[in-house]
Design a protein that fits this description.
Rossmann fold, single chain, alpha/beta, 5 helices
């Protein structure tokens, strides 16, 4: 069982509904949470960082700032994401770039940048972790969401392979794949219009399940776990 009391955790995407709730729950478990996001109006707490994940330097900057503030990191939760809708035959290059930058490349860069610090946490006796959210579309690519599904599947593949390497350094990677969740993300699509989805999952319940997975040393949260 992971002991969160006294840990330092970076939550990227903490200005979103799900990231904000995960950050809050981690604090109730005794973690010091560094919140990072793109919207300063939606970041609450004593430790906040601004970053745009379409900037390839953002991952290194965010991790360095969090470590500088607290001298260590014991975990990172990557809850940032963007979505786009529309036919596969009509997706633009700009939409492709943003989908892959935010949903695949930025998480991969964050994992790369945070790994030495989490390895140091493990050496010091901690149980460091990384949480990613490739979502249900990485399991079941969805028509009308082809490019989004592809970006999330790329992240899932990296995590599946990379987690086998990182465990040698004592770092646990937990990938969460909840179904459609009522975070409002679909209403903020970077392209296209969302179809009429059935009611989605409660973000509070999803956040609770993810934090329970962290505490219980789980390594995978497939869609059926939600």
């Amino acid at each position: 069982m992971a002991e969160l009391e006294g840990s330092v955790v970076l939550v990227v995407g903490a200005s979103g509904v799900l990231g904000a709730e995960i950050a809050r729950l981690l604090e109730t478990k005794g973690s010091t949470v560094v919140r990072a996001g793109r919207n300063p109006d939606h970041l609450a707490g004593p430790d906040t960082l601004l970053g745009d994940l379409t900037d390839e330097t953002a991952a290194a900057t965010l991790v360095a700032a969090a470590v500088s503030a607290h001298d260590r990191l014991d975990g990172v939760v990557i809850a940032a994401g963007v979505v786009a809708f529309g036919p596969a035959s009509e997706v633009t290059d700009e939409t492709l770039r943003r989908l892959f930058e935010v949903n695949a490349l930025a998480p991969i860069r964050l994992i790369r940048e945070v790994s030495p610090h989490l390895a140091a946490s493990a050496t010091a006796g901690g149980k460091p972790f990384i949480v990613t959210m490739s979502g249900i579309v990485s399991e079941t690519p969805t028509a009308g969401l082809a490019a989004y599904s592809a970006a999330k599947a790329a992240l899932a593949a990296f995590v599946q392979a990379g987690s086998r390497e990182l465990r040698r350094s004592g770092i646990r990677v937990l990938d969460a794949r909840p179904g459609h969740t009522e975070t409002g993300l679909a209403t903020r699509a970077i392209a296209g219009t969302a179809p009429a989805f059935p009611p989605g999952l409660d973000p509070s319940a999803v956040a609770q399940r993810i934090v329970r997975g962290i505490v219980d040393d789980e390594k995978d949260l497939p869609s059926g776990a939600f």
